[in-house]
């Protein structure tokens, strides 16, 4: 469904953020992207939807090659890629409902969006999504009145109202407390299963990644160091990705959290 072919990003300084990345993600698979800061995780996500322009290589989404599309064709292709941001990227003065409906901008155009003239079908879908993410009762609240976890739920609903084929999720739990982080990760993975969505989740919390996703890819210095099941993230593998640390403690934490999940 998504295929990266020798995807490379080299900055003007000569620094290589991505080094000939080859990667395939089938329909419906949720993948976590882990690695130290500066490994290229955010750059990879942004090269896929061309918020950052790749230097070389190809990005294929559902049979369409994205890296050579013109502006108009790229706008249409971006409809199929929902983006969920670390800092939420909400318009603070707008309501929750208005922020969710802004995800339809690629379909209704700027002026209809600016004048709040959305089709009734879009409004109905926004209400359904707000109900699904647990914020129906806050539809008329301004975004600046929300907590971090609530803002992230609005961002999830806004991405889903695009009706995408792929979710690109950039550090969704970085600003959240541990309990809210688990709730947000669980919600994203449940929604992907319900909708048959593929997702790439850039995440720093290795334990959260191991708890919730089907596949983990580890980056280091712009190259793939690991690609496999969460259970295969051994202390040796984590040392290769991040460097020396007491990784046994991380694995024990995951096992303990799984017991809590089962109890819930």
From TrEMBL:
Membrane keyword on record: yes
GO molecular function annotation: ABC-type phosphonate transporter activity; ATP binding; ATP hydrolysis activity
Gene3D superfamilies the record matches: P-loop containing nucleotide triphosphate hydrolases
Keyword Amino-acid biosynthesis: no
Keywords, ordered alphabetically: ATP-binding, Cell membrane, Membrane, Nucleotide-binding, Translocase, Transport
GO cellular component: membrane
Ranges where the ABC transporter domain occurs: 2-246
Protein name: Phosphonate transport system ATP-binding protein
């Amino acid at each position: 469904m998504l295929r990266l072919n020798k995807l490379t990003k080299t900055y003007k300084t000569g620094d290589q953020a991505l080094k000939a990345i080859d990667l395939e993600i089938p329909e419906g698979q949720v993948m976590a992207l882990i690695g130290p800061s500066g490994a290229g995780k955010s750059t990879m996500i942004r090269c896929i939807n061309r918020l950052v322009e790749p230097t070389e290589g190809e990005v294929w989404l559902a049979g369409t090659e994205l890296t050579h599309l013109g502006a108009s064709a790229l706008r249409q292709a971006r409809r199929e890629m929902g983006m969920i941001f670390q800092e939420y990227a909400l318009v603070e003065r707008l309501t929750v409902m208005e922020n969710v409906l802004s995800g339809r901008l690629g379909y209704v155009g700027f002026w209809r969006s600016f004048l709040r003239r959305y089709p009734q079908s879009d409004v109905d879908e926004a209400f359904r999504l707000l109900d699904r993410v647990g914020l129906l009762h806050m539809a008329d609240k301004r975004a600046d009145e929300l907590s971090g976890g609530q803002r992230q739920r609005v961002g999830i609903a806004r991405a889903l109202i695009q009706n995408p084929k792929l979710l690109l999720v950039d550090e969704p739990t970085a600003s959240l407390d541990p309990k809210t982080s688990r709730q947000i990760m669980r919600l994203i993975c449940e929604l992907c299963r319900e909708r048959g969505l593929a997702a790439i989740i850039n995440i720093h919390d290795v334990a959260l990644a191991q708890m919730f996703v089907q596949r983990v890819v580890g980056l280091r210095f712009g190259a793939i160091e690991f690609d496999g099941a969460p259970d295969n993230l051994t202390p040796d593998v984590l040392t290769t990705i991040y460097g020396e640390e007491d990784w046994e403690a991380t694995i024990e934490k995951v096992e303990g959290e799984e017991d809590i999940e089962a109890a819930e």
